[in-house]
């Protein structure tokens, strides 16, 4: 059951077939795809995977919050957004919503984005305690989600 509770498993393995099934059932077995969303799905997944590997290599720990980084990572995409891995999830789900033209997937995307935001608030408090002043300075310099916006 632990496997199914992991965020990447839900985002990349569970939500896509669930949304696809939902769309098939609600549209009489027919769906119209918008292939313009596929690049977002690829981008989001690759951003999640590559940033996780980058963070593990540069900061120690694991790719997720279960095994936190031992050192601050503030280079690569982390120089532009403090949460590129979580943002990768949201980008992927946005692509899924667009690809399947799915309001159901859009609701999941918004719910996941809100959940990530509250998770990040808790993560940041923990990281400020663990990494100290350098992390606090980093949070003042780099936006939480979207570079230059918020």
Task: Explain the overall architecture.
- The protein is mostly helical and 150 residues long.
- It has one domain.
- It is built from 6 helices and no strands.
- It has helices spanning 2-5, 7-26, 38-59, 84-99, 103-131, 133-141.
- α2 runs parallel beside α4 (84-99), α3 (38-59) runs antiparallel to α4 (84-99) and α4 (84-99) packs antiparallel against α5 (103-131).
- The protein is elongated.
- The chain starts with a helix and ends in a 9-residue tail after the last helix.
- The mean pLDDT is 92.
Task: Tell me the span between the first and last alpha carbons.
Answer: 35 Å
Q: What portion of residues is helical? A: 55-70%
List the total number of helices. 6
The gross shape turns out to be: elongated
Overall mean pLDDT stands at 92
Number of β-strand runs: 0
Q: How many structurally independent domains?
A: 1
Low-confidence stretches: none
Global structural class: mainly alpha
As a percent range, the share of strand residues is under 5%
SSE series: HHHHHH
Largest sheet: none
Evaluate the radius of gyration.
17 Å
In short:
This protein has helices spanning 2-5, 7-26, 38-59, 84-99, 103-131, 133-141.
Give structural attributes.
single chain, 150 residues, mainly alpha, 6 helices, 67% helix, elongated
Chain-wise SSE layout:
Layout: H1 2-5, H2 7-26, H3 38-59, H4 84-99, H5 103-131, H6 133-141
Helix pairs in contact: 2-4, 3-4, 4-5
């Amino acid at each position: 059951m632990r496997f199914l509770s992991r965020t990447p498993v839900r985002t990349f393995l569970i939500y896509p077939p669930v949304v696809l099934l939902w769309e098939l059932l609600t549209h009489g077995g027919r769906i119209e795809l918008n292939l313009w969303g596929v690049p977002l799905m690829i981008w989001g997944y690759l951003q999640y995977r590559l940033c996780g590997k980058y963070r593990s290599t540069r900061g120690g720990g694991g790719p997720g919050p279960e095994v936190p980084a031992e050192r601050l990572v503030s280079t690569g995409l982390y120089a532009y957004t403090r949460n590129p891995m979580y943002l990768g999830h949201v980008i992927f789900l946005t692509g899924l919503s667009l690809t399947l033209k799915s309001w159901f997937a859009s609701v999941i995307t918004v719910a996941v984005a809100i959940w990530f935001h509250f998770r990040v608030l808790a993560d940041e408090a923990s990281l400020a305690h663990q990494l100290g002043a350098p992390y606090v300075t980093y949070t003042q310099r780099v936006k939480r989600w979207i570079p230059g916006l918020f």
